[in-house]
Amino acid sequence: MSRKNASFAADLAAGIMPADETVPRRSSIGAGVLTGRENRLSELASGSVVTRTHELVDPARCRMWEGHNRDYALLTEERCADLIESIKAQGRQEMPAIVRRIRDDPAYDFEVICGARRHWSISWLRTHNYPDFRFLIDVRSLSDEEAFRLADIENRARDDLSDLERARDYLRALGVYYEGRQNVMAERINVTESWLSRYLDLARLPSELMVAFPNGQDLRIKHVTALKPLLKPDDRKERVFAEAARIASARLDGVPAEPVPDVIRALARAADAPKKSGSPKRSGKSEVITSPAGKPLIRVDFKDRKGMRLTLLLHSGGSRHEAETALTAILDAHWK
Questions:
Q1: 53-161 maps to which CATH number?
Q2: Which of 16, 243, 257, 324 has CB atoms 3.0–4.6 Å from 214's, for a disulfide?
Q3: What ranges do the domains of the chain cover?
Q4: Distance between CA 65 and CA 116 in Å, rounded?
């Protein structure tokens, strides 16, 4: 018997021989192996080490969890470009997606809790000259509420998940998992109620207002503080909805889409009750003259004893006749 095997046999014998019958011997590779295994089992039994099951699978056998906080339909090659290049450079997917095993759907074996971009990227690569790439998954056993919290923690710091996607996920979870109790949800996901409220306010913005924005994913939490006050009282809300519809219609007619801040300013102007034609309405440091229907016509940017500077708002919905009437009113009021 080789010295190595003999030492290993001695280790096994030591485990069954009484303590006073064992003979002193040097430490050996076999002793180290058994000690390592014993320590590992102790760690697993105590819970200080948790094992994970990682598998490489066909992404076509994985479906998105219905509670996933990312809109899978919005994923594109452009949005996943950084991840695609990383996978190609590494030759594999480095970070496993978190999934649950399912047994009620013969078309799928798993549903993805976290990792929609990884799933999309691997699927895209397999159809674009990389058929050997497989989807790396971490199989977990999770309740729906646990899955929601896990996905939220993983994606909260990600810049590629829009505020609107996260907001809508929170609003859905509030009703499904927390019975509408905002304080309970805030405690469970470890955030303040005020922080959570801003996301819920974003998710609750009505569709009649959202049509004003060509891409709702561009809206941020910071925009909520400007938009929410426009929805009260009802008469202001109706004027804002009408202006949002006009902006959407103009966009369909070929008018270039404006940045989010400009759209919000237009909605804010429309929220104020229309004044008599020719009467100025203050807007910050400028004065905006509107039509009887509340459409901005002329902006007075500067005025002193020597004169005034005017800007014609050509694409704000007013007619030339209304602009001429407003200009005449300015002349009548200021030209001595």
A1: 3.90.1530.10
A2: 257
A3: 3-46, 53-161, 209-265, 274-334
A4: 10
